[in-house]
Amino acid sequence: MRLSAEDKLEIHEVIALHGHLCDAEAYDRFDEVFAPDLEVDASALGLAPLPPRDPSRPWLETYIAVAHERGAGSTVAMHVTSIIVRADGEAGARAWSKGFTVAPDGTIASYTYEDRLVRAAGGWRIRHRTIAPRRTPGGGAEPLARH
Length: 147
Description:
Helix content is 21%, strand content 37%. The protein has helices at 5-23, 59-70; strands at 34-41, 77-88, 92-102, 108-120, 123-133. The mean pLDDT is 82.
């Protein structure tokens, strides 16, 4: 599959929307960003895994509950930048981006997001997200491979 310019723009906007929704504490709008069968791997951050999947409760719902639990005040702002998008198979896309958060005390944390996206009825949605901290220089060259 080849991604159109419109596909890539929509994917960029979906990824950016996540930060805006987090900053606004609009977690109940996460369905505009994530697929209902969302899987998140944040183990590299040392975060406890999300509760085991309950067939009656999609992970997206669980992810929203975790965001509410963290509550206001955990960050001042969440930013995303340097988004790279590539086709992935016949019906999907992959995206790599850099994220950083600013804490109330002014400290900054940097992350790398690796997303797998699917086209849904409402547009592109993230189905799988891997979040890794950026603590040392170098690495992360996979999306830079020549195509």
